[in-house]
Q: What sequence folds into this?
């Protein structure tokens, strides 16, 4: 089993790096602000239609454009969900959503969270899925990539006052990166058996003679961008455990690769844009090391399973509860780690059915800010915040002003870094406390004891960190939970983006200084260790008390029967 786990993780990472390297070169050209080959003429037409060539923006203008763009998307999606019953492409005549569920869903997809407090096949029409959710899957992903482009320009430009143009970045990322790759993935999914049609739901008779209604719909097109953009929202309630969404072992592998593809490629692009590939590789190796350890721990916990099953006469303690027999324990465990290390809520197994320690790892991966590859754009800019924190800690150790890529890290940058890093822990801990203190929050818990608390902690962690997966076992489709999680999603997304762009605006105006004998080298294994230690330290200090009340307590109860 250990050899199988090693080969599975190694082959996955090898395929990922082979695919991500050339994509990193493409993204680096977009960071430079260059048009890709064959796109210049089409871009000139688009700019003329938009009113002229895009002008460079300072960080405040860039932030305003990002906020305005997402606010308009939120309002449009909210209107679609509320008025769904009167809109076309609704063969099942599904009504509009309640106001609180519509608000939660709109916020969820605009913030790249894709938390789903509804069952897709019984709640949303084809129009809502295509024009509402799928469009936002593209645009929310493009938003995250545009923000990290601006931050990288802050590191690489000198004595400048601008960070690029938000509208141009979002347009280029959507048209030349997300749409082409998603199209290829969608065609592969269709070839493998994923649904893609606009038919009414089809009646069927089972072998036992029971009548059943089989849901149809444009699944493959949403499935492709849900993975590529680390969105995660499933067309069906069972998400990627549903054979209409994830029909074969090949589609399962492609889904995992698609989740990590752009986050890994952005690391290569960062090194290319900095003119020093070592800087990108350091971040990539730090992410990979944490990922491998977490995947191995989750697999070990699920293979070990529940020891009491053996005492009761079971042939094996392996925990197959809540897992698809098509994929098995190892692949399901790897998928769970991939989707929670990235900002993706897709699942092919029920995380609620994992062992206590097996469920702790995905929960903790979200709580550290999903910087282990992370979401498209958000993973890298989140990890760059930890890079700034790491060089600050190193500067304190040697009594020097911290610097990174030749730029001094001053008080303003560290204040913004601390603010951005502390946003999501504050939301998670306060949100979980509020849910446990109120009857409206506690009434949604179906499982007593530590596991019930773990479900609450997981839900708020998932929302605040824009993941979207759920532990389940929590009746979260109530006004209280819809509003609480919507607030966590909005603040967790944009209260991090704002200080990130402020940091970019501060750095871009500085001049890079040549390295001196006292400069901390940031391109070697020593800095990889320092960066990993910083991530672990922040995660441990922040969440160990809460984790002790949930999965750790549950594990101790399991050991003692």
A:
């Amino acid at each position: 089993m250990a050899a199988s786990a090693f080969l599975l993780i190694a082959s996955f990472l090898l395929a990922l790096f082979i695919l991500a390297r050339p994509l990193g070169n493409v993204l680096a050209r977009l960071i430079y602000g260059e048009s890709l080959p064959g796109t210049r003429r089409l871009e000139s037409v688009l700019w003329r239609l938009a009113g002229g060539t895009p002008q460079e923006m300072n960080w405040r203008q860039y932030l305003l454009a990002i906020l305005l763009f997402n606010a308009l998307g939120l309002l449009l999606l909210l209107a679609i969900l509320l008025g769904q019953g009167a809109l076309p492409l609704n063969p099942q005549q599904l009504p509009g959503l309640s106001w609180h569920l519509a608000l939660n869903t709109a916020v969820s997809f605009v913030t790249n969270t894709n938390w789903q407090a509804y069952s897709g096949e019984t709640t949303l029409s084809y129009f809502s899925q295509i024009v509402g959710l799928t469009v936002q899957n593209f645009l929310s992903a493009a938003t995250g990539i545009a923000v990290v482009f601006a931050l990288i320009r802050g590191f690489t430009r000198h004595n400048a006052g601008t960070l690029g143009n938000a509208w141009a970045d979002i347009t280029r990322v959507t048209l030349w990166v997300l749409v082409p790759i998603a199209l290829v993935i969608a065609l592969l999914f269709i070839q493998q058996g994923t649904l893609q049609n606009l038919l009414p739901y089809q009646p069927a008779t089972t072998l036992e003679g029971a009548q059943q209604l089989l849901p149809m719909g444009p699944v493959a097109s949403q499935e492709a961008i849900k993975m590529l953009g680390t969105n995660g929202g499933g067309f069906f309630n069972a998400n990627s455990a549903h054979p209409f969404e994830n029909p074969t072992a090949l589609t399962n592998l492609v889904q995992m690769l698609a989740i990590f593809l752009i986050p890994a490629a952005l690391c290569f692009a960062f090194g290319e844009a900095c003119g020093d590939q070592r800087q990108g590789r350091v971040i990539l190796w730090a992410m990979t090391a944490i990922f491998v350890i977490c995947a191995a721990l989750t697999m070990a916990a699920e293979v070990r399973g529940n020891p009491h099953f053996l005492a009761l006469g079971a042939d094996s303690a392996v925990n197959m509860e809540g897992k698809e027999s098509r994929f098995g324990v190892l692949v399901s465990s790897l998928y769970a780690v991939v989707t929670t290390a990235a900002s993706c809520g897709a699942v092919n197994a029920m995380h609620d059915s994992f062992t206590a320690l097996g469920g702790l790892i995905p929960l903790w991966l979200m709580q550290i800010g999903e910087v282990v590859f992370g979401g498209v754009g958000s993973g890298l800019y989140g990890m760059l915040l930890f890079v700034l924190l790491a060089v600050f800690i190193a500067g304190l150790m040697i009594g020097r002003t911290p610097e990174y890529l030749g730029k001094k890290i001053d008080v303003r940058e560290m204040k913004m870094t601390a603010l951005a890093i502390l946003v999501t822990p504050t939301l998670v801990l306060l949100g979980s406390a509020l849910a446990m203190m109120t009857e409206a929050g506690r009434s949604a818990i179906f499982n007593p004891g530590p596991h019930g608390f773990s479900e609450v902690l997981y839900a708020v962690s998932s929302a605040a960190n824009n993941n979207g997966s759920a532990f389940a076992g929590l009746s979260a489709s109530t006004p209280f939970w819809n509003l609480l999680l919507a607030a966590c999603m909005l603040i967790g997304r944009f209260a991090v983006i704002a200080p990130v762009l402020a940091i970019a605006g501060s750095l871009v105006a500085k001049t890079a200084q040549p390295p001196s004998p006292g400069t901390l080298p940031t391109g070697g294994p020593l800095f990889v260790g320092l960066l990993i230690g910083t991530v672990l330290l922040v995660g441990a200090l922040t969440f160990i008390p809460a984790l002790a009340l949930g999965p750790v307590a549950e594990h101790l109860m399991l050991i003692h029967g």
Summary: The mean pLDDT is 91.
